[in-house]
Amino acid sequence: MASIKPVISLIALAAISAPVMALDIADNDLQLSVGVQLQFWAQSTEGKADSENYNRVTNTATTTGTTPYDQANNTNTEPAPIDFFLRRSRLNFKGTFKTVWIFSYSLRTDRLDQGTNGTAGRSPQQQTAYIGRVFKGDDWTSQVKGGLDYPFFNIADVGPSTAYLLPGQRATQSLDGGTIGTSARGVGVSYLLSGPWVTWGVDVLNNVNEAGGSTKVRTGLFYSTRVQLSPTGDWHIGRYTESFAGKEGKGILLGLEAGDNYHAQPGTIAESAAGGTTSIGNVNGNATADTFTVGAAAPGAGTVTSITRDSLVYGADLLFHLDGLTALGEARWQKDKYKINTSTPAGNQYTGNQDHFIWLIQAGYAIPVNHATQALEIAGRFTEIDQNTEFDHETAAFGSQDYGNSGTQEEVGLNWYFSGHSAKLGLNYLHWNAESGAAHENIFRLQQQLSF
Q1: Quick one: average pLDDT of 268-284?
Q2: Which residue has the higher pLDDT, 169 or 265?
Q3: Which residues span the domain enclosing 145?
Q4: Three-state secondary structure of 400-447
């Protein structure tokens, strides 16, 4: 367990926040909203990394003991007593033109100074940049847009991140057709249809996690679709949110989705390449990748000319709301299919698969306080993470993301809503154990959020 002094220090950082107002600018043709999202984190961790290396090819294990683990930097070193950083720092411009054209332009500097105190991670990146057209009917609305945005897919990634039940992102975010921890956010086109009881979307984007092309194989695209079903009337949920912050009402929503990251290239490999290695998949419990030596006997006698990956993703989630209670159950599957081509002998092809599965349940209950102008919420979540379902000896350490690698994860938290999700304070404890071995992590997080 983490020492008590950093935990007391985290609690002492809590401060009351004032209500926030959004900024809107409008004339006869243009309506522009300016928004800011700031999530300040103070985090104290204690963990171990297991040096066990279990090779699933030879079924042998090599163990040299455990080492301290610094989650903020993902290194086998002692962590700082408290790590201060900005989990999200975002500036958003969003609006409409002549009521039917929509646009968004936003910048982000997420994980600012996580594990460091330098300027390297302080440069802003593009978060969204798209334009679209809205078509409105009596009961149905549709929109078509193009540019940089999240697809209507993997709701743990889409968010909204301002309304998370617990400060950390759900682990199901990691299964989006790319490598673990990446986002499907990219440039492409999308269609969204919304009606009284259904919302349905289709997206076609550039490949997720595409590292480059090949001289022999053409890269593909990322395709996804999601449908959300919610009954009309009293039980309708109009907008998906992880927590309703104690708001009165009720509702239920079912989400179903599928995606295909077709012919993504895990690496850039030229046919004339000589020497070096290329890696795919996960070969052992210490998160080491399958390694194929270029130009040697593994996987073939000749140079690796191309590697393609097709990743199929399926997900289902059920959201429930009844006054102060919000509950969510979610399951997600991903199958990675690899094809490796070599030049000697010509046309040699090797294939491999890796299956992932993550499921979770979470719930929160909020009660009104301060004459019902604020709310206090207790929350919890249990997550089972398996990044390789055919291998039961994964010993990888937690990682630098909000959630752990393969293993089990329990979280409890307390949220104070000063002005809904616009101004809230969250205190969260997370405990994670690796699927195999002695790797573990204990994390105390304090989050102060201001969003408008």
Answers
A1: 42
A2: 169
A3: 4-451
A4: CCCCCCCEEEEEEEEEEEEECECEEEEEEEEEEEECCCCCEEEEEEEE
